[in-house]
Amino acid sequence: MNKVSTENRAEHIINQEEQPIRALIVDDEALARQGLAVRLEQDSRVELLRSCKNGREALEAIAELEPDLIFLDIQMPGMSGFDVVERLQQDNMPLVVFVTAYDEYAIKAFEVHAVDYLLKPIEQERLQQALDHVSVRLAGKRDQLEKQRLMDVVIRLTGRSEDAVAELMVNEESVVRYSEKLAIKDGSSTTFVPVRDIDWIDAAGDYMCVHVKGETHIMRTTMKELESSLDPNLFQRVHRSTIVNLDRVEIRGHTTFGKDVVIDINVILEGDNHIGDRVRIGPNTVIKNSRIGSDTCIEAFSHLEDCEIQLACQIGPYARLRPGTVLCDKAKIGNFVETKKTVIGKGSKVNHLSYIGDAQVDEAANVGAGTITCNYDGVNKYKTHIKSNAFIGSNTALVAPVTVGMGATTGAGSVITSDIPDGQLAIGRGKQRNIPNWKRPTKKTD
After folding, report:
1. Beta-strand pair 338-344/286-288
2. Residue 290 is part of a domain; what is its CATH number?
C-alpha cells in the first residue's frame, strides 16, 4: 500500500487553496452506498475516494488513503461503526458522520465526537448541513497542520528547539470547541437542536427545560454540565436556574435578575435595572433604568424608561412608559398606551390607545380606550386625579387640572373640564341632531 506520510499530506493540504473534502463511505448495504455516492458526486466540495462494505475494509482504506471524512454506518456485521472508531489511531482520525436507520445511537455518536448524525433515508438538506459542519471543522484542522508546518520550517532554519520556536510564535489561546447541537432524547426518539436556536434554558428539578422557537424540550442533566457545553460568548447564566442566549438580549449597563426570568429575542436592557422573579419580557422590548417587580409580564415592542413596576403587572404590547411612571401591584397598561409622571393604582387598567400624563390613578379604576389627559396648555402642566373605582368612558378628554371622584363615571366621547363628585355620571359632549332628508354631497365633474 502507498501510504501518504503526514508531512507530505500537510504539504498537499497547504499548497492548495480549496482542497476538496476527501471522503469514504462505509456501509454494509450496497444500495445505501450507491445512493449516498450519487449524492456526494453532485457536490463539488467532495472527492469520493472509495466505498467500503465493512469495518475491516474501512480500516484498510483509512490507513491507505487518509481521508478527511468518513460516512460510517453504525450497525454492520462483525465490526460496528463504533468499533471502527475505537480502532483508529488519534493521529490518523478522520472526521466522522454516522449514518444509520436508528436514532437510538445518537447520544453515543456525539460522545465519540462525531461531526453529525444522519438518519436513513438521508434528506438532501440534512446532507448539505452535515457537509457544512465538516467544512468548518476541516478548516480548523488544516489551520493546525499549517501552523505545525511553519513551526518545522523555523526549527530547520534557526536550529532552535521546538519550545524556543513556540515562544517566538504568536501566543494563541487554546480553542475550546463547544457543541453546535444538543441531542435531546425523548423515549425512543432523539431531537437535534441547533445551539444557536436556543432562546433560554431553565431548571426544573433534575431536568433542564430548553426553550427553542416557542417549543420546550426536556433534558435530564445538570445546569453545570449543560452550561459547560455551551459557548460562554453566546450564553450567559443570569441566575442559578436560568441561562439566556445573549443574541436574544443586549445588556448596556448593569442589570440584576431574579429567578426564572424569561427574555425573548432582541431585548435591550440599558442603564441600571432590576428584573424580579418570574418576569417575562417579550421580543423587541427596551428597558432603561427601571425596576420590574416579580410576576410581571411585558409584551412585545414595549419601551420603559425610569419606571417602577410593582408586582404582577401587565404591560403592552406596544406600550410606552416614560420617566416617572409607577405601576402598583396588578396594574395593567395595554397596547398603544403612553404614560408619563403617572401613578397607576393597584388593579387599575388603561387598556388601549390612551395617553395618561401628570396623573394619579387610584385603585381599581378603569380608563377606556382613547382617553387623553389634557395636561399641557402650552406653558404649564397640570395634574389629573382619577379616584378609586372610577370608570372613564372611551374617547374621554380630561382637561387638567381636574378630579374624577370615587366611583364616578364619564360618558364616552366626553370633554371633562371640571371636577366630578363621587359616584356621579358626567357627560360633556355636544347634543346630537338628526337631520332628515339630508343628501350626501356628490363629486363635481368638469
Report:
1. unpaired
2. 2.160.10.10
Q: With beta carbons less than 8 A apart as the criterion, state whether 322 and 338 touch.
A: yes
Burial 351-380 (b: 16+ CB within 10 A, else e): bebbbbbbbbbbbbbbbbbbbbbbbeeeee
Tell me the pLDDT tens digit for each residue of 217-271. Answer: 998 888 888 888 888 888 887 667 788 888 877 888 888 888 888 888 788 999 9
pLDDT at 423: 97
Measure Cα distances from 21 to 5, 13, 66, 174, 409 in Å: 18, 11, 11, 25, 77
* 352 catalytic per annotation: yes
Question: Longest C-alpha distance within the chain, in Å?
Answer: 110
Residue 121 lies in a domain: yes
Helix (H, G, I), strand (E, B) or coil at 359: strand
Helices (H), 178-326: 223-228
Pick the catalytic residue from 133, 217, 274, 352.
352
* pLDDT tens digits, one per residue of 90-125: 666 888 998 888 766 666 666 656 788 888 888 888
The number of distinct structural domains making up the chain is 2
For residue 175 the three cell numbers come to 480553542
Residue 368 near residue 374, CB atoms below 8 Å: no
CB of 339 closer than 8 Å to CB of 357: yes
Are the CB atoms for 411 and 424 separated by under 8 Å?
no
Q: The domain containing residue 54 runs over which residues?
A: 6-146
Alpha-carbon distance 6 to 12, whole Å? Answer: 10
Asked whether residue 295 is assigned to any structural domain, the reply reads yes
Give residue-wise pLDDT tens across range 271-324.
Answer: 999 999 999 998 899 999 999 999 999 999 999 999 999 999 999 999 999 999
Confidence of residue 156 (pLDDT cuts 50, 70, 90): low
Which residues is 385 bridged to in the sheet?
360, 403
In a domain, 214, yes or no: no
Tally of CA atoms within 13 A in the half-sphere of 370 that contains its CB: 10
Q: CA quadruple 148, 153, 156, 158: dihedral positive or negative?
A: negative
**376 in a domain, yes or no?**
yes
